[in-house]
Design goal:
Order of helices and strands: EEEEEHEHEEHEEEHHEHEH
Helix content: 25-40%
Largest sheet: 6 strands, mixed
Length: 263
């Protein structure tokens, strides 16, 4: 069960499925205790795509969050298969962390879940959480385990695409390849400009979060977390890259509600 005091999840033998439905894909993970045992990246969410995880062994419950539209038929089928043990994260869901945000109704569920995962991993510490997916979000969790807000900007691929589509001659570039400090041709100039620009943005936010909220640790998640953490090391910034941070947060929220009798 979840312990609000320790911020830990005890291994009670339960197997929980978490689903983080993003803008371009979903990350589904089966957890035993704190450990992810099976995971899948799903681009077209359906029960059929989830079956390998649902049939991997008894699933004791599921926590789901989405940044966009929820398919009612899919959700009802999933709820029925789980015999009602489905927690859908909404602005009214009880949380194991505090939230100080002026517009909670528009606060992305993935941002909340990532913050909950970060607070679970490092209780009592001030943290900056960088989620580098379709968008880049930079969010502060203070030492009291409270979400204080953050910033949203375009993600890596969105920046590459906008440069290509808004100009006549610039090619469309991907993140794969050399990322020099300064580009030596047009492709590397774009890749370096975009990637190094994002690392500078993260570095500035981390320095500001340290100054304003005492944040001493940087956590990165999302598809581009590994690349960005490697680039940040060039500047002497050691971030903790965790691809399952949102799923871990969903897990902690599920067990928090389970302990409270809300599931």
């Amino acid at each position: 069960m979840y312990s609000a005091k320790s911020g830990k999840i005890a291994d009670d033998g339960m197997r929980i499925l978490t689903i983080d439905q993003g803008n371009s894909s979903a990350k589904a993970v089966v957890w035993e205790g704190n450990e992810p045992v099976i995971s899948a990246r799903i681009f077209e969410m359906s029960i059929e795509e989830l079956l390998p995880l649902l049939e991997s062994g008894e699933i004791d419950g599921c926590a789901y969050c989405s940044v966009g539209h929820k398919d009612a038929k899919f959700m009802e089928t999933l709820r029925r298969m789980l015999e009602g043990r489905l927690l859908v994260l909404t602005p009214s869901t009880p949380l194991p962390i505090g939230v100080r945000y002026a517009s909670c109704s528009t606060l992305g569920n993935d941002r909340v879940a990532a913050a909950a995962g970060a607070a679970l991993l490092f209780p009592g510490e001030g943290l900056l959480v960088a989620d580098a997916g379709t968008a880049l979000t930079l969010d502060v969790v203070d030492s009291e385990g409270c979400f204080r807000g953050g910033n949203i900007s375009p993600g890596l691929r969105m920046r590459f695409t906008s440069l290509h589509e808004a100009t006549d001659r610039l090619p469309e570039v991907t993140e794969e390849g050399d990322v020099p400090t300064f580009g030596y041709d047009t492709t590397t100039a774009i890749r370096a400009g975009v990637a190094m620009g994002m690392t500078a943005e993260i570095r500035y936010a981390f320095e500001a979060a340290r100054r304003l909220y005492g944040c001493g640790r940087l956590l990165l998640t999302g598809n581009d977390a590994t690349l960005l953490s490697e680039l940040l090391k060039r500047d002497g910034i050691e971030g903790v890259a965790d691809p399952n941070l949102v799923g871990l947060g969903l897990l902690s929220i599920f067990r928090y509600n389970l302990t409270a009798g809300a599931i």
